[in-house]
Design a protein that fits this description.
Chain lengths: 378, 202
């Protein structure tokens, strides 16, 4: 508050009135530092007021008890009212409960079988049991500690401890030469799906730029492309602990939940070459959301890529384009800015790039053209 | 249709210190976070409802207005970061909606603040809770209830709804000086209640 505004009324007050005025401003958090000083010296001169000021502060800070149950009932009624007004709103708990395929006995078999199928495929890739206990070998005897994929490619790796990692396009996994010895730690850029072998004594840790994910044995997906706005950890089974480095906080996920963390490295400030510019000081945003499922599909949108399926659920065309760039190893250019905000649902499995683009073109009515590896949308 | 059939006005409350409105606002805007929206509702619904009630004088209408105002938050969640001061914005929306309702329903148009009759909540949850209140607290409560309406509105917005001087000034279209002096009047009344209570005891 500008001090001048209140100057006139401050004149000719008795000590008691003056104290009350200053205490009121203090309680409101509107007192200037000189007013606070004045208050302390006035109280020192009139110690009898101290107890009265204490009770006034106590009364100011007290708040009525809230009836949580009643408030929750009011909230539920409000949501009903919102829905009857055509406003879509899915309660978090309902979303989790309705889409928990792992607990439904009918669906239980599907993931169990598919995990088995994938493990068999790994045996084929790396020549069966013999190589299972060794790290992935490159030419000669040199141990390769790093696996990376280019855009358009995906791969799966089996690690020394029996854990399997599916690495999505344009990603890198560095597992260090000590892996499987004293500790199980890997470094990830990009996106990977982990099926971690249980070992309570040696937790499996995935380091990324923004978060560290610590697990005991579970299936989950981590997405941390440097260019994406969010770093995403999606949990299918078990439990993981995510350390959000910027906030120094640990978040524990339950099955069918994902943790979204704002990606600091994608913020433009850091990219500027101005060294004097500090990295954004504010805390990054964090949220837990339920995984999304499409049309009774037992595999969530977040993990669909593991099954060679590129899946979108209410994502902007700009985000979809970014995924397609990695998936098909192309580059998108939007000539019509408004198209970026279109909301896309759907999935591609065996479609070629051309088929995928035609399907999108058909749904949205835009035009596209190809120039080498560049897709121009207009 | 009333939002909730239980015939009780929600405790006037927004004093939860963990109600970080701007953080909740970001969570809703960036992540469309349902649980953040729920928290925001818990933090602000009672305040907004009671503020609307002070204008429309009908619990049912006040409930509808508060529900409408908070519904807007979800419907416009993707543009929510454009709002600079969400708490004040919602109070202002509630004020405008209440005045509009009042014109429609009663053809009565509000001209001065003194016509605002704020119902100060005398209901502290459950009877046991009321029993636990000390004699002094009850006396103080009575004293606040006896404040002139305008003084009571300002005291309520400042103490319970945690609005700042400048925010109350903007919302009620009064000067900062008025708010300052009205709050001093309220605290003076409270102090004299405490004084006479302590005086009698000793």
């Amino acid at each position: 508050m500008p001090p001048s505004v209140l100057l006139i009324m401050d004149m000719f007050q008795s000590d008691e009135d003056r104290i009350l005025t200053l205490v009121t401003r203090k309680l409101m958090g509107e007192a200037t530092s000189s007013e606070l000083d004045e208050l302390s010296s006035l109280i020192a001169e009139n110690p009898s007021y101290e107890i009265l000021i204490q009770s006034l502060t106590h009364i100011w800070d007290s708040s009525p008890v809230v009836d949580e149950e009643f408030m929750e009932a009011t909230f539920v009624a409000h949501i009903d009212r919102m829905k009857s007004n055509g406003c879509e709103f899915e309660s978090y708990e309902a979303a989790i409960e309705a889409k928990r395929p792992w607990y439904s006995p009918k669906r239980m078999l599907v993931p169990a079988f598919s995990v088995l199928a994938i493990i068999t495929a790994v045996y084929f890739l790396f020549g069966g049991r013999a190589s299972e206990n060794k790290p992935v070998m490159a030419e000669g005897k040199e141990i390769k500690n790093e696996i990376s994929t280019r855009n358009g490619n995906r791969t799966r790796i089996q690690l020394l401890d029996g854990s399997t990692v599916w690495l999505n396009a344009g990603s890198k996994l560095d597992y260090g030469k000590d892996f499987g010895g004293a500790k199980r730690e890997v470094y990830l850029t990009g996106e990977a799906f982990f099926d971690v072998t249980k070992n309570p004594e040696k937790p499996f840790i995935i380091h990324t730029n923004a978060i560290d994910v610590k697990v005991i044995g579970t299936q989950f997906n981590v997405r941390c492309y440097p260019t994406d706005k969010m770093v995403e950890t999606s949990l299918i089974k078990g439990s993981v602990e995510v350390l959000v480095k910027n906030r120094g906080e640990k978040w524990v996920l339950k099955p069918n939940e994902k943790l979204l963390v704002e990606n600091v490295t994608s913020l433009p400030l850091k990219r500027s070459k101005d060294e004097a510019e500090p990295v954004r000081a504010r805390q990054v945003l964090v949220a837990i959301k339920p995984l999304t499922y499409q049309n009774n599909d037992s595999v969530s949108v977040e993990a669909a890529w593991v099954r060679n399926k590129l899946s979108f659920q209410d994502e902007s065309f700009a985000e979809v384009a970014q995924k397609m760039e990695r998936w098909y190893d192309v580059e998108f250019e939007f000539r019509t800015e408004g198209l970026k905000n279109l909301s896309v649902y759907g999935s591609f499995t065996s479609e070629t790039l051309q088929q995928a683009l035609e399907a999108l073109e058909f749904s949205f009515g835009f035009k596209y053209s190809m120039q080498g590896k560049k897709v121009i949308i207009y | 249709m009333p939002l909730n059939n239980r015939l009780r006005i929600v405790n006037h409350f927004s004093g939860d210190i963990n109600c970080n409105i701007s953080e909740l606002q970001q969570q809703i805007a960036v992540f469309e976070d349902v649980s953040a929206y729920r928290k925001l509702f818990h933090c602000l619904f009672p305040s907004i409802q009671n503020f609307a009630f002070s204008i429309v004088k009908s619990r049912q209408l006040a409930e509808e207005i508060a529900s409408d105002v908070l519904m807007e938050v979800w419907m416009r969640r993707l543009k929510l970061m454009e709002v600079e001061n969400l708490r004040l914005y919602l109070f202002t929306s509630a004020k405008n909606a209440s005045l509009k309702k009042l014109r429609q329903e009663t053809r009565f148009s509000l001209s001065t603040l003194d016509e605002l009759q704020v119902e100060f909540i005398s209901d502290y949850g459950n009877p046991e809770e009321l029993m636990n209140r000390s004699e002094l607290e009850k006396k103080v409560h009575e004293a606040i209830n006896e404040l002139p309406p305008r003084c009571k509105v300002i005291y309520k917005l400042a103490k319970e709804d945690k609005l700042k001087y400048a925010e109350i000034a903007e919302l009620l279209d009064v000067s900062i000086k008025t708010i300052d002096s009205q709050l001093v009047i309220a605290n003076k009344k409270i102090i004299s209640t405490v004084k006479s209570f302590v005086g009698k005891k000793s």
